[in-house]
Design goal:
Blueprint: E1 9-12, H1 22-29, H2 31-54, H3 64-70, E2 75-78, H4 84-93, E3 98-101, H5 109-112, E4 119-123, H6 135-141, E5 146-153, E6 163-170, H7 177-200, H8 209-212, H9 223-235
Parallel strand pairs: 1-2, 3-4
Antiparallel strand pairs: 4-5, 5-6
Helix pairs in contact: 1-2
């Protein structure tokens, strides 16, 4: 929005969870997706290295992290935003608003209370439907023909809080989880400025009773559920 300035970007290290946490990564992503993410990290490092040696050209970027590196934007990689070191860094920034997208931590009140206007979350579903960590998976698993993205004020409860922006789109034939998330984030980027104004004015967007009645929460899918979705998609 006009007059806004990016203070800092915190990236969550999905793969590096420390000793003894590989099981959680497998449960969250499944073996094939975990291997894919590992390969993406390797190719990302190669692209950044090559781009830095040749030229700092943002056209090499294939992710927001790569873009931050190549454009020399202020950023850091964190393991947990609730850690004291992350809290101290966030407090030092003296920001007005924290914008969260695909964060793997449930942010505590200590984090949410630091920014002047609190925090908003960008969630790739039509809340309150498909609350939880893998909404794109569950939309495909249940055969939805549309999805969306919701921008909402954050509370200590998962994917709850006043909605300040919501946008729908059709799920195209052949789309996977990444396609749904990518489309949602593109729409969120287009409409984030308007959502920030709503936050600033302490307003919210009302949803229909019909949509409110679809409220649901799903956790990480199991390996068998991921295999089942793969079979379903192959048969479509």
């Amino acid at each position: 929005m006009p007059g806004s300035e990016l203070a800092h970007t915190f990236f969550y290290n999905t793969l590096n969870r420390g000793e003894g946490k590989i099981g959680r990564s497998i449960r969250e992503f499944g073996w094939s997706e975990l291997m894919s993410k590992g390969w993406q990290e390797v190719t990302s490092r190669v692209r950044i290295g090559v781009a830095n040696k040749i030229m700092r050209d943002e056209r090499w970027a294939r992710s927001s992290y790569e873009l931050a590196v190549l454009k020399n934007l202020p950023h850091s990689v964190v393991q947990n935003m609730n850690d004291p070191s992350s809290l101290d860094r966030l407090a030092d920034l003296k920001i007005d608003l924290l914008v969260v997208a695909i964060c793997k931590n449930i942010l505590k009140a200590d984090v949410l209370g630091i920014p002047k206007y609190g925090a908003v979350n960008v969630h790739p579903s039509l809340l309150p439907q498909y609350r939880g960590p893998s909404p794109a998976f569950w939309a495909l698993y249940h055969g939805e023909d549309e999805s969306g993205v919701t921008i909402h004020r954050m509370t200590t409860k998962i994917d709850q809080g006043d909605i300040v922006g919501q946008h729908r789109f059709s799920i195209k034939r052949g789309w996977g989880e990444d396609d749904i998330v990518r489309k949602g984030m593109e729409l969120a980027a287009e409409h984030l400025a308007a959502a920030m104004e709503i936050v600033k004015k302490q307003q919210r967007i009302e949803i229909s009773i019909e949509q409110a009645e679809k409220a649901s929460y799903f956790s990480y899918p199991t390996a068998s559920q991921r295999r089942e979705l793969s079979r379903i998609r192959r048969g479509r």
